[in-house]
Amino acid sequence: MTLRETLKAANLPEVYRLINEKDQQNVVERDRPPLSTTVGAYTHVVEELLSKPKTKAYKMSWLVKESIDPFDKQVYPDVCFLNHSYVAPKKGLKPWGGTRGKKIPKGYYNCNAEKHNKTFACGFTPWSEVIDTPIIIEVKFSLEKALAELLWELTFYGWTEKRVSQKVKEIEDSIAQTKKEIKEGKYVTLPRKKGGYKIVIPDSVTKQIIDASVKKKKS
Hints:
The structure is a single chain. This protein is an alpha/beta fold. The protein has 2 domains: 3-83 and 118-168, no CATH class; 169-218, no CATH class. The chain is built from 7 helices and 8 strands. It has helices at 3-9, 12-23, 35-50, 127-130, 143-154, 161-183, 203-218; strands at 61-68, 75-82, 94-96, 108-110, 119-120, 135-137, 187-190, 199-202. The strands form 3 sheets. It has a 4-stranded mixed sheet with strand order 5-2-1-6. A hairpin with an 8-residue loop joins strand 7 and strand 8 (199-202). It is globular.
C-alpha cells in the first residue's frame, strides 16, 4: 500500500497512541507530551498529507525495518527510503567520501554516490512527493505500528511540509557557511589519536558552543 492508502486504512487513534507511547521515552520532560497534544498535532499532519494532490510514486520506496544502534547495540525501528537502483561496490574497494568532481583514488569507491547506498534518510523529502509512494514493511509490525514509526520520522523536522522545507533551507545555509569558513581558514582543529579522523570545528560553531555555555552559567 502507498502512504495515502495506509493513512486511510489504519486505525488512526491507535497510531496516535503508539506515537505518544514512543515520545514518553524521551529524556526531557517537555518532549513527553500528553496524549491529547499528540492527537491534536498528528490529526493536522494526517489532514495535510491526505489533502496532497495525487502524484506518481517517489523514485524510492518507503522502508520500515529494524536496525542496530552502533553505540549501544540496541535494536530500534528504522524508517528510510529503499534505493531500487543500488549497485554494490566492487569487492576489495574501500569507501571514500570525497566531493563531486574529484577523482576517486585507486582502490576506493565513492561511498557518497547514490548508487552505492541501499537506503536514504527521508526526513528532508517534501511530503507532496511521497504521499503516493508504496511502503515496504520488513518487520512483524502491525499496520498501525509501521505507520506510527513512519509519521514520527516524517515530522522530525516540522509539523507541516512548509516548516520542513524551511528547516532544510536553514541546514543547507549552515552547511554552506561552514564550507566557506573552512575554505577561509576560520576554524580550529582538535588533536586526534593515531589513525583517527581529523576533527575540524568552524568558528561559527565554536561561537555557538561558547554562547550556549555562557547562557547555561547565567541560568
